[in-house]
Amino acid sequence: MSKTLYEVYALRYATHASRHASENFIFSDFHDDVLMPLDFFMWAIKGDGRVIVVDTGFDAETAKKRQRTYLQSPVEMLRDVGIDPNAVSDVVITHMHYDHCGNLMAFPNARFHIQDDEMAYCTGRCMGHEALRKPFEVKDVINAIRCLYEGRLVFHKGSSKLADGIFLHQVGGHTKGLQVVTVPTARGGIVLASDAAHYWKNIRERSPFPIVVDVEGMLEAHARIESLADGPYHIIPGHDPKVLEVFPRLPCNSNIALLHVHPVFPGQEKIQDVILQSLAITTQ
Ligand SMILES: [Zn+2]
User: Fold this and answer.
1) Range of the domain at 141
2) pLDDT digits (tens, 9 = 90+) for 273-283
3) pTM > 0.70: yes or no
4) What's the gap in Å between 3 CA and the centre of ligand 1?
């Protein structure tokens, strides 16, 4: 049983507003193809003197190339939660898609935790297929290899312990070596699901996001994540704009949500005010 309870932050650094619902589900209803924006996040975990960053986002150059709206550098956003990127010692790479590993070199003193299967995937024969290669940037893969040769890649296989109470779990589906992170917080155990579920709706309706290497693996991942989390809102999807709607945000940066605090649903805004007032004191 872990003694440490952690603070967990979701940092929204970019968005893609013109995306449609039909692009977000493998079994979509095209008669009702409404806009369904997609946000881009990086996550930070703090507790007991430890800092763990989960994913590194992408940079402004990649945002321009892929026509995504860049709100702020995710590396710079870390400073709003009291984290100096130069001092970060551990970064989890959930997977090697461009929106999750684009700023490796901005963490010069970090070790990067990655699954064996993910590194093999992004440097192996699958990348010969354009459809699988599309969400990767070769510069990111080269930077990961650079980190490997600097002795800064830490390989994991399956499930492993990262820190007191914090575990990595490989799950199938989206890529070959995607890993999710489980973290104990004051409101229970949460799962940073990354792209095992882009939206809450993907997991709730068991309808995978279309970027998928193995549909069966992704459906198994949905079940696994549910078994690892203490409730539906303890699962944090990788790209859902609703994350910023239901969790309280930092007073100094409205693109940062506090995931260790209970979610607040429409009609409960008064409770959110109370939470924010108490946070204004604790986050000083
Ligand atoms: Zn992603």
Assistant:
1) 7-282
2) 555 555 443 43
3) yes
4) 31
